[in-house]
Design goal:
The chain is mainly beta and 763 residues long. The chain has 5 helices and 51 strands. The chain has a 30-stranded antiparallel β-sheet that branches. Strand 18 and strand 19 form a beta hairpin. The protein is globular and about 95 Å long.
Length: 763
Amino acid sequence: MKNLLIIAVTMLISVQLSAKTISGRVLSEKDSTEVTGAVCQILAGERNLAGTTSDAEGRFSITTDFRGKLTLSISMAGFTPTEILIEDGKKNVDLGTVYLAGAITLDGVTVTASSVFQSQGKTIVYPSSADVKASSTALSLFQKLPLAGLEANPINRTLSIDGASPMILINGVPSSIADVHALQPKEIERIEYSRMTPARYADRGVTGLINITLKKRNDGGRIYAWGRSALNTAFMDANINASYHQGPSQFSLYYNPSWRNYQKVYDFTEQSYVGNDFRVDIESRDRNPFNYFMNIGRFKYNFSPSTRTLFSATFNLSSTTSKGRSYGSVNDTYMGDYTFDNANSDNPLSPSLDLFLRHDFNDRSSLEVQMVGTLSSSDYRRNNIYSFADGTSDSYVMDVNSRRRSLISEISYIHNFSDRTSLSAGFQNTLSHSRNTYLTSDYRPVLTENNNYVYARLGQQFGPVYLSASTGLKMFWVENDDNKRHFVRNLSQIQGQWNVNSSWTLSAAFSYSPSIPSLASLTDYMQQTSPYLFSNGNPNLKVAEYFTYQFMPFYRYKKFSTSLLLTYTDVKNYVISDMIYMGDEKFLSQSVNSRKRRYYDGTLNLRVSDLAGFGASLNLDLEHYYNAGDGWSHHLTSLSGRISLWWNKGPYTISYWRKLPGKYLSGHDVGKEENGDRLSFEYSPNKHWTVGASWMYMFDSKGTRYPSWNYSAVNPSARDRFIRNNGNMIVLSLTYNADFGSIFRSGRRSLNNSDRGSSLLQM
């Protein structure tokens, strides 16, 4: 083993000694300012050997062990690409200053192509001017990008990677989907994308990474406002964003309201409760109107006394008022016919303060420190009333107030030994104190949490091959009045990428990730929610362990790109919702660990764009699920897809998006994904205004549909839920933006802006 280690170290040193470095600095020919984010690639013929991007000062450095003639290609949106021939030899080459000329423009339209390449395990995209011009919002731009596994839903205005929420960064700053909505497409310089969650964020329950880099700005300000509303139902979303920068200071104000008031929501359910000595079959038809008004506000102040130091303070305030009701009739083979009327309300409020400091010691090393304090509260009410034919009635009440206080702290260090080798490490800690007050019983459990996560990641470039490995240790202590649980688990990743040539890239990855039970799922407090059903947390839940293997070939030729992702996931102690019979005609629903879960997935993505203003993207997904427990097992194979078409001509843009929903399996539960389609027309008479009209859920009177089934032997069921308010929606939108001067780009930073944890189990 010792000899093998010596040989490996010797080979690594010899590779480094035999390599040569090509470096330089990229400046704008127009005003000699640095060009940040320029794509710099070393080519041997058609073969792409290595690549990087220029830093904040326009500098780049690429190392290769190839001895023959090379071509250095430098490109950047808004500039004319350039190529420089590098003669053969062993010596390092310092090109000094490389000037990029401005791109040729016709009628105010920049003639630049979309640039896509693979670097250090990520897909990096520079949106083309054609895609930007055909997009009125940042979300509509994401629909057009060749990012396999990414779904940009224009109806719900969400971004997801492989069906889960991603880690979103804007200029390296952890951000939310609301921050993405506040961006204009023309602001986005490039996007770094990965379906693997980086080690630094592996402890946050997210999938994948989206890092958006904005174009550099100087003194000045910006106002951006967007809103949409339906003509035929109570539906409204908006974003307002104002920013101003003067000298070393930048001020930003965000406000994002969202309102729904849906009355035509219906459920049709057939289910059974089956015990050893008892069985009841139930058919119910009910109506479920709901409404909510959500408000997200944010004020941010950045102070940057030098290019190497940034201090940031952000105050966030999120509040929601929501009410729901469910009432209808039930045909019950045991109790006869009866009616029910259930009502619930919630008023969560979450203010938080985020303090952040970043200092770059030099071009290779940086340190980040951050503290985030959050105060959150929720007053949840649920009253269930059942009225029977004999005139009697029963009621079941869940009234609980929740108060949570938390402090998140993190320190992170990043060091680049060279352009080929990088190391990052950090420590995160979350302390929280939660108190739930159950008003019907005066039970007031206190839940405390101490979550620690330490990690390290090493990345190394070997010519056209990039390898990275990371490991982390999660130490989680949680306790309430009755129970204490301690968890110590590892999180690890291995990732490799081979840039075969300028067209082909092969990627592979492995990850091990535990999913530790939440405070709410561990809370032992039983509550009755119907005449037959009780619910409770499970303090004996085990940690679910995910082993994921991925392989992805990526191919790009001119304006066409395609990728295929193959995924296999094996889960130990997978957590599912299960039901047992307690006797005396009563049943208990709670989370338990199943024996086995396996998941297979193949995702094909095809994209073509900028063909005389026309573009198209197609995503097909074939999935197979296998779940098993004690005495049961279920299989499911599902095909799903998404298609997006768009065409732009001058100030007019027409687009169409449709989702072909697939099914999913979790334990005994089978559900079908949300359906959706949208035909949109937009008109931009000038650079400030855009007017749009959309037709959603076309020719579909039922609107959004959520069919589901349960194959449990104790509680088999079939449910059909749909929202008629969404059927054939006609939505009008209006966008306004104005720039005066420009705003400097904020420094990089990387932590949550608020704590979104909860200790409350809601039914």
